[in-house]
Design a protein that fits this description.
- The chain is mainly alpha-helical.
- The protein has two domains: 5-111, Arc Repressor Mutant, subunit A, CATH 1.10.10; 112-152.
- It has six helices and two strands, in the order αααββααα.
- The chain has helices at 5-51, 56-63, 67-79, 101-108, 114-123, 127-144; strands spanning 83-86, 96-99.
- α1 packs across α2 (56-63) and α1 crosses α4 (101-108).
- The chain is elongated, with a radius of gyration of 23 Å.
- The N and C termini lie far apart (59 Å).
Length: 152
């Protein structure tokens, strides 16, 4: 039996809804991961700035993450010329990480936290766009039933 025009439109609408829902979920996950990534990198820099050269395991303890997580972040920071690995012990397996001059400058000039980047971005939007974002985020928090969570 041939589908009606209404059935076809309903199917297209469902497909569109599913596709957009998936995009929203992925966007939220990317935002969360970006916040975590940004915070982890800055925490490593500040741990070194405050405590001087440290081993990767000491950095992990200071910022409360796994050593395996620290290794990847140190690699990225080293590629950005913000830290360098040193082998100052007679045991070549012992590695110490210290800030480079660029890393020191970054720590001294304290880049804006991710919240400030959001504020700066929102300041460039129209009041209508800000209202739309605020309403949409309120709907999302209502869906998650997190209105009562204390924001730190």
């Amino acid at each position: 039996m041939p589908e009606t025009c209404e059935d076809t439109l309903s199917e297209i609408s469902q497909d569109y809804h599913a596709m957009r829902t998936k995009e929203i979920v992925y966007a939220i996950r990317r935002l969360m991961q970006a916040g975590e990534h940004y915070t982890k990198e800055l925490n490593k820099i500040y741990a070194l700035h405050e405590n001087g050269p440290l081993s990767p395991s000491q950095i992990a303890k200071h910022v409360m993450v796994n050593s395996s997580t620290v290794t990847g972040i140190i690699d990225r920071l080293e590629n950005k010329d913000l830290v360098k690995r040193l082998r100052i012990s007679p045991d070549r397996r012992v590695v110490t990480v210290e800030l480079t001059k660029a890393g020191e400058a970054l720590a001294e000039n304290a880049p804006p936290p991710i919240q400030q980047k959001i504020v700066d971005g929102l300041n460039s939007l129209s009041p209508k766009a800000i209202d739309e974002i605020a309403l949409t985020l309120k709907r999302l928090t209502d869906m998650l039933d997190v209105q009562g969570l204390k924001v730190t």
